[in-house]
Request: fold
Amino acid sequence: MNNQTKFPNTKDINPLIPICFFCREEKNKITTVSKLEGMYKDTDTSTYAILDYEPCDRCKAIMKSNVTIVGVSETPTQNGQPPIATQSGKEYYPSGEWLLMKSEAIASTFPSMPEKEVEETISKGKLLLKSEVVIRMAKQVEAQN
Reply:
């Protein structure tokens, strides 16, 4: 009996190490992609790629007790970039800016946000804001430190 594994034509398969969108570190797994979609379709020789917006295990642990505020725009940062969300027919794309906020600080930071929306934001653990707002918030936090 032959114990050799037969693989398909390797020029059609790209072994990739997924990268976490948030920390840009390896996700500690390998995936194979036969046809890269979206923003990675021209990355046929790359070994690393951001394939989704799902945080790695390390980022998940950090984000678990906080709300992740992600900067978004209505324009993709790369050709073919998939949206992180669609709302009222508009697609929103992460711009790369993000920060963490304690759940209990959401209501006081966004006093005009309805209570129900505050609760939903805390429950989801994620809030999408215009990237300019996230940049301003990060600068304010930096100035306070």
Q: What stands out?
A: The two ends are 67 Å apart (CA to CA). The chain has a mean pLDDT of 84. Residues 13-49 form one domain. Residues 3 and 110 are 62 Å apart (CA to CA).
